[in-house]
Amino acid sequence: MRYFIDTEFREERGFLEMLTIGIVAEDGREFYAIDDMAVDRARLNASGFVKDQVLPYVAEPMNIIPMRGSLLAIGEAVRAFVAAGGSKPCFWGWFADYDWVLFCWLQGRMVDLPTGWPQYCRDLKQLCDSLGNPRLPSQPKKHHALSDARWIRAAYDWLVSQGGAKL
Fold it and tell me: Tens of pLDDT along 111-152?
């Protein structure tokens, strides 16, 4: 089962904090969670991109009720969401390095990932590079983790429909 993931986060030199996470499963299920404490800290401390392009959209309705809680609670909910898919998961992101680190931290350390989960995330940008960088469907203008995860899924499906290998 493929899962398309995205996070919104606050980053400073030597500091990375997840604000929200969006996951879209290839079977159509969706997950969206907000770490309210991290968002509150970001409202006090963020500037630039996060303040202008992320925080205004955190609680925007996306036809799904967001899960709210601590990183531990969000991690447990992510584990249950992925387990409900039944088969071995395959995770995809877009420029996914930080997304993957934050995703893994929800489970503790990378070595704490549940049995059967890969210790890597496939990156759609790398797939695009291998296919000659075709023009993808337009990305959402708003930076919202669930909206972006939906776009990653749509872009993956589009690449496959254009003859890209289904990985």
Answer: 899 999 999 999 999 989 988 899 998 888 888 999 999 999
Whole-structure pTM over 0.90, yes or no? Answer: yes
Q: Is residue 89 a contact partner of residue 3, using CB atoms and an 8 Å limit? A: yes
Strand partners, 91: 3
Cα distance between residue 43 and residue 114, in whole Å? 33
CA distance 47 to 152: 26
Which residues of the chain form beta strands (DSSP E)?
2-12, 15-25, 30-34, 67-68, 90-93, 122-123
The answer to whether 125 touches 94, Cβ cutoff 8 Å, is yes
Distance CA 62, CA 147 (A): 8
Short-list 89, 86, 93, CA closest to 117: 89
Q: 144 burial class (0-12, 13-18, 19+ CB within 10 angstroms)?
A: buried
Q: Which amino acid is it at 56?
A: P
Give pLDDT tens digits for 56-102.
888 877 888 888 999 999 999 999 999 999 889 999 999 999 999 99
